[in-house]
Amino acid sequence: MFDRGEYNCTDRWCAQGDHISSVRAVKQDNNPPRAQLFERAGFSGKKTELHDDIPNLMSRYNLNRVSSIRVMGGTWVAYQEPNYRGAHYLLEKKDYNSFSDWGAQNSTIGSIRRVRFS
Q: In its keyword annotation, does this UniProt entry include Repeat (predicted)?
């Protein structure tokens, strides 16, 4: 996820090689940020509602496994590890019934934050 600007190839984003294999635009949603995280698939189990960035889901909500997500406002990025590290998944306004719906191979989510548009 890049903000507008110029980027030199550094280890931060170019560690997999010297090229970019795909790019996609992010839909801007101007609704207030709101997402619900569910412990189990199908929007069941413990529910946690978010309106702001959470750098560590485990320490804040005792939650590190998320099997379904309902994004009701804003655009979000979920990260597999705390502090916005590891594999990341773009979450636009939509219901994600299972972690495979957002492209993950398991339900581990360590942090999540809103995409800010300027």
A: yes
